[in-house]
Amino acid sequence: MGWLNYHHLYYFWVVATEGSITRGSERLSLSEPTVSAQISAFEKALGHPVFSRIGHRLVLTDTGEVVFRYAQRIFTIGQELSDVLAGRVHAEPIKCVIGVVETIPKFLVYSLLGSLLASPFRIKLVCHEGSLQHLSAQLAVCALDVVLSDSPLTANPKLELTSHMLGESPIALYGVGRLAARYRKGFPRSLKGAPFLLPSAQSFLRQSIEEWFALEQIHPDVVGEFDDMATLMAFGQAGGGIFPASAAVAKELTRQYRVHMIGKLEDAKVRFFALTVSEEPKHPAVLAIIQSGKERLKG
Q1: Cβ(160)–Cβ(140) under 8 Å?
Q2: What is the pLDDT of residues 111-126, one digit of tens each?
Q3: Would the CA dihedral through 245, 249, 255, 257 be positive or negative?
Q4: Which of 18, 2, 8, 3 is CA-nearest to residue 71?
Q5: I need a labelling partner for 61 at 20 to 30 A (CA). Which of 27, 70, 116, 223 fits?
Q6: What is the pLDDT of residue 175?
Q7: Dihedral-angle region of residue 33 (phi above 0 means left; psi in -120 to 50 means alpha; beta otherwise)
């Protein structure tokens, strides 16, 4: 058979539920000949009868039993959707599995995902953290719905993924009070030989700041390298060294970690991306994340 006619399926379901053409016609506000004709057309399309008559009663055939079970699920879900949109009941939460690249500040992750809390749909978030390489591979096999990254996808013919740029921000340098007091004066020349805590070499943030160091001819003292940004910031909070992060999270970062911004690297930017399998994602949570990111990072 070709495409299922859902009008015919609905007429069948109503008649099967009511137990007769007469009561089904009354419920549908249609004449009995019209409903009978629709049921006959449905049976012809299926290639099997869905009802048999025993005396004056309609009885489901074996095929009819199978079709009725599916119709029951389809139209029950349809009614639930109508109720949800009308605010009469709460829908089951929509699961969204998100990959987060390790070097993205957790403040920004919460800022992007926090918008889902105000979504008209109930969203169940499942977050995994890892390297861009690992998370991209998971996304490619649809184990994830979206990946939040601070670098675009590298060319890989095996991974047909799409990068949605959310926005960009200057890189800023942060440190505890004594470091800020010492290195703000004469910034950025004052940074020569300064103790730095940096993300690992493969991160886009590290590459950007290394380019800036080379351009400014600054040779820092790299005292620590970290895969995880939260661990790096914990060392920064303890006074282990100056560390870079997006200026977009300056307010949250300085408040929570009790550090100070030493200065911005205006010519060094960090960019943020949402990676998806499709160029036009349909998942409502993924769409909300992309929209929230563009609004959060637009300026």
Answers
A1: yes
A2: 888 777 766 667 888 9
A3: negative
A4: 8
A5: 27
A6: 97
A7: alpha
Predicted pLDDT at 225: 96
Q: Before 199, cis peptide (omega within 30)?
A: no
pLDDT recorded at residue 106: 85
Rounded Cα–Cα distance for residues 266 and 13 (Å): 65
Q: Are 112 and 288 within 8 A, CB to CB?
A: no
Q: Which two tokens stand for residue 197?
A: 């805590």
pLDDT of residue 120: 65
CA dist list (Å): 268 to 170, 204, 261: 6, 11, 15
Interatomic CA distance for residues 16 and 42, integer angstroms? 13
Strand (E) or helix (H) holding 295: helix 284-296
According to DSSP, residue 242 is labeled B
Query: pLDDT of 5-22, one tens digit each?
Result: 889 999 999 999 988 899
Share of the chain above pLDDT 90, in %: 52
**Cβ–Cβ under 8 Å, residues 161 and 275:** yes
pLDDT of 158 above 80: no
Whether the Cβ atoms of residue 293 and residue 274 lie closer than 8 Å to each other = yes
Long-range contacts of 265-269 (CB under 8 A, 24+ apart): 265/170, 265/171, 265/172, 265/173, 265/188, 265/209, 265/212, 266/170, 267/212, 267/215, 268/170, 268/171, 268/208, 268/209, 268/211, 268/212, 269/168, 269/169, 269/170, 269/171, 269/208
- Roughly how many angstroms between the first and final C-alpha of the chain, as a whole number? 55
Q: How confident is the model at residue 91 (pLDDT cuts 50, 70, 90)?
A: low
